[in-house]
Amino acid sequence: MKLDGAIPKIETCNDMLSLFLRVNRLETAWVLYAEMFKLRIKSSVYTFNIMINVLCKEGKLKKAKEFIGFMENLGVKPNVVTYNTLIHGYCTSGKLEGAHMIFNVMKRKGVEPDSYTYGSLISGMCKEGRLEEASGLFDKMEETGLAPSAVTYNTLIDGYCNKGDLEKAFSYRDEMLKKGLMPTVSTYNLLIHALFMEGKMAEADDLGKEMGEKGINPDSITYNILINGYCRGRNVRKAFSLYDDMLSKGIQPTKITYTSLIYVLSKRNRMKEADNLFEKMKRNGVLPDLVTFNALLDGHCANGNMDRAFSLLNEMDKLKVPPDEVTYNTLMQGRCRQGNVEEARELLNEMKKRGIKPDHISYNTLISGYSRRGDMKDAFKVRDEMLSIGFNPTHLTYNALIQGLCKNQEGVLAEELLKEMVSKGMKPDDSTYYTLIEGIAKDGEFVNNDD
Question: Which of 408, 383, 378, 381 is nearest to 398 (CA)?
Answer without folding.
Answer: 383
